[in-house]
Amino acid sequence: MKPTNDLKQLLHMLVSDEDLRKLDDERLEALSLTQLQALSKQLCRDLKEARDRMNQNPGNSSRPPSTQAPWESWGISAGEKSKGETPNTGAHERGNDVERGESSAGKDTTGTTQQQKRRPGRQKGAQGHGRKLEMVVTGETVHRAHQCARCAAPLEASAPFTATTGFYVVDVEVGPAEAPGVRLSNTKHLYGDTHCCHCGHLTPSEPGRCPPEAEWQVPLSERHLAGPMLVSLLACLALRMRLSRARIQEFLRDWLSLELSIGTINRCVHEAGRAVAPVEDQLVKELLDSGQLHADETHWKESGLALWLWVFSSATVSLYLIGYRTAEIIDNVLGSSYRGWLMSDGYAVYRSYQHRLRCWAHLIRKARGLAESMDGRRAQRFGQQALALLEALMKAVYQAREGPPSVPLPEQYAALLDEFKALCESHWDCEHSKTQALAREFLNDWEAIWIVLQYPQLPLTNNEAERALRHWVIARRISYGTRTEQGSRAFALLASVIETCRKRKIAPWPYLASVIAERRKGNEAPPLPAAAI
User: Fold this and answer.
1) pLDDT per position as a tens digit, 435-447
2) How many angstroms separate the CA atoms of 384 and 61, rounded?
3) What does the alpha-carbon distance between residue 433 and residue 440 come to, in Å, rounded to a whole number?
4) CB under 8 Å to 274, separation ≥6 — which residues?
5) pTM recorded for the entire structure
6) CA distance 191 to 200
7) What is the pairing mode between strands 318-323 and 341-344?
8) Contact 232, 248 (CB under 8 A)
9) 206 near 190, Cβ under 8 Å?
10) φ and ψ at 301, to 5 degrees?
């Protein structure tokens, strides 16, 4: 039996989304065996093409690496992705055979093991390069002891001083408003023995130093080539301007005639992160005291490990953390003491907080996706109903913000919400996976979604947290994340201080320099200033 004209037209129009939506079980059952075979051939060709497109990746097509989902590049299965879990081994461990260039048998075609892949950075046995800094000394600072170590007598400025050691510190000096500009200074710092005129004891002076910390391998000391403001500038170029270490090196050489190695630049950025580490406690305390908080997370790579960049944002604080996508991160920050409103997406770990808000923007996008799906029956209809309800209630909330309605919104829309809740319950076990997932999401977060009808002044979306992540998402795409645990920690700490200062309309760089200067002396970090009026 040959296909009818209607079937030919149907086959011809299968490339159309509209006709694919009209193809349902009833229409398929009405076709004969020959018609089903002809239709199956066309659907098979279309399915193969669709699968080919789905299987495209940066390795076999022109897709850029940024189009890959994090679990695709990390090799996480769909089940692990849904649970927010991370594989026990990182990419650098899973790919050892590839890095060695070995075949499955461990040997190449000639029977010899290929040479190990070259690692980035200086190779073992390579000739090093000494410091090539040749600058005119612009000043000299003598560091004297102020009190005799033996008799505790004060040491006058006129007491004899013998220099025993010294070093140069290059720093950035920013001119005042009446004479703006930036210039480099090269100061010679001298340390030595001061003679006590009372007992004759020689009291030595030494550069300040922050005690060692197990978390950090980078030292924090006044004995450093780069001054506090120069370190602050390097942190600005690395994080705020999103420059690589090599580009920072090029900028310093071309614009300031300053030669710094990439290793020195990297250590300075890590040192800045260690310096501001104590400020994190102040940020957490202010977050807990806030009445409204936004939280979100995005994937992050640390030398192949599947990590996540978290943000907790209030009106005056932005706190960033890099770690696994687990409830432990939230518990470490908020614990059980937070009593304000927490705005988040549908991630299940947020559900332990009573005063929680759900982002409507996420729900609207999912409902619109169902409304435009190829399933023309239950999925499409459920998506249309959910989308219409959200848009109507969002309009009502905006109107309530301008003036209180005559009838409170929860009472005004009680019947409509009850009807929609029954609709969600009827789709709890829907065969369409995305419809089922959205229906369950509504039911699981029912109070968190509709609480805004009772308090219209609360936010409807989590845009605050998403905007706080946007800059660092771009940085991640440029740098492909961080390479060490210390680098991740320094990145999160500096991002927290930078964004918090910007929220408070304060320039972060002078404050960062002051923190570095005090911490190098072994003192406590100055607290973050309040928001500028």
Assistant:
1) 999 999 999 999 9
2) 35
3) 11
4) 210, 213, 216, 218, 220, 490, 519
5) 0.80
6) 18
7) unpaired
8) no
9) no
10) -110, 135
